[in-house]
Amino acid sequence: MQLGHRTLQSCQSIVFIMALSLTEEKSPTPQLPENRSPEIPEALRPLRPAEIEEWEGWVELESEPAFFNIILRDLGVKNAKVQEVYSLDQALMDMMPKPVFGLVFLFQYHPMLDEREEQEDSEESPWFANQTIHNACATVALLNIVMNAPDVDLGPQLESFRESTRDLSTALRGHRLSSNEFIRNLSLENEARAPKAKKSRAKAAPKKRKPKNLDDYAFHFVAYVPWQGHVWELDGLQTKPRKLDDWTTVARPEIEARMLQYEDSQLQFSLQALCQNPLTVYGARIAEGLASLQAIETTARSRHATWQPLSALVSEEELPSFLADLRLDADTTERAFVPQAVHNRLEKVATDDEAQLLYEEVATETKATIGEYQAELLSMAEDEQRVKGRRKNYGPALHRWVTKLAEKGLLEGMISS
Fold first, then answer.
1. Residue 62 and residue 71: Cα distance in Å, rounded?
2. Does the pLDDT value for residue 260 go beyond 90?
């Protein structure tokens, strides 16, 4: 089953048409009154930080991994990354960075089509918060995953929030979440258009009911999380978590079933996975590689004090700047252990040539990992730029374009045509 590519709208063609229109000569050119209301510029200016903090509402977030990754970063979460899932085929799911902490499924919510079995009360269930306010479903789904993800550094703010809400009911957790200024303000900073999803290409069996007007229903995010050997559906609109069965092999058909249930309505879907951040894995591998190279040099020089690799990956003098360029600290490499496989081969090294061969093999593998690490850093920088562009308020610019069109007498004709 395939999930279609994202369709993102752009105003470039509109701006291009406007630019062409403004170059046309019109005579006479009507002029707008100079004493226009001063309230218009005030209404069009971006919201000030204090105004954002005073507002108690939430905004919809676009189903875009870049937004979620920036939110995770700003929340202080480490070792986790949101990644798009383009297919539910098990083979492709197996290629996701491991471990997969959870899946975020986006669909257009319809209460008549979302008849779910009630989950029995259980003392043992994952951390779960209800959605108690409009437009918070994306943040609720994301936090319902990271709060249950093992080996993820939540940062001081989220860790404190989790501990302070551990003994609360799911509804009270949701209320505390929606009223938490730190969490809400970060979501507001990543304001976007209504979530965009992908059309499912699945063929579905006939369903029971069909909504009359799908546009009346908003998009909704649901999280699927592995916890204590089972997968749990964490839907903020439900009263409690819903336990399904074993993890990846069950989450996939469960999501497929949801998609098939809505298929006749021609709804759209999106699926993203919260995985371990590849930077964590690559950083550890680089540290192990550097530790291995140092161990090889030490062993070789114990036999011949003047031994030197033919082509050193990095000299001892260059190591601090080398690590700084990769955003790695010296403690990471100092704490790294030589992998057992390298250690076993190193014990069998008897000549300088054998030491040189082992050094070159480890150096080649480490260089490849550095390349993957740098590619991931580039991806993070691109996410940053993408979110920065989406955060920009284009309202004043569009107002300026419309004003110029009106001044040249073009606006009325464009509206009538």
1. 12
2. no
Q: Using alpha carbons, select from 166, 159, 306, 147 the residue that is nearest to residue 234.
A: 147
The catalytic site residues sit at 137, 220
pLDDT tens track for 214-245: 455 555 667 777 777 677 777 776 767 766 66
Biggest alpha carbon distance in the chain? Answer: 93
Q: Where are the alpha helices (DSSP H) in 30-154?
A: 39-44, 49-54, 65-75, 90-93, 137-146
What 8-state DSSP symbol labels residue 257?
A: H
Domains recognised in the chain with CATH numbers: 50-276 (3.40.532.10), 280-380 (no CATH)
For the chain, how far is it from start to end, CA to CA, in angstroms? 43
Exposure b/e, 104-131, CB count within 10 A at least 16 = b: bbbbbbbeebbeeeebeeeeebbbbbbb
Nearest to 165 by CA among 186, 179, 151, 185: 179
Angle, alpha carbons 65-203-274 (nearest 5°): 20
Decide if 129 contacts 52 (C-beta within 8 A).
Answer: no
Alpha carbon distance 255, 247 (integer Å): 12
Taking each helix axis from N to C terminus, what angle separates 137-146 and 181-189, rounded to the nearest 10 degrees?
120
CA-to-CA separations, 248 to 10, 91, 179, 232, 254, in angstroms, rounded: 36, 11, 33, 11, 10
| Interatomic CA distance for residues 300 and 294, integer angstroms | 10
| Cβ 112 vs Cβ 210: under 8 Å | no
Distance CA 145, CA 288 (A): 30
Is the peptide bond preceding residue 278 cis, with omega within 30 degrees of 0? no
Q: Which residues, in sequence order, are bridge partners of residue 153?
A: 78
Q: Is the separation of the CB atoms in 369 and 286 below 8 Å?
A: yes
**Residue 72 and residue 85 in contact, taking contact as beta carbons nearer than 8 Å:** no
Peptide bond into 49 cis (omega under 30): no
* Predicted model pTM: 0.62
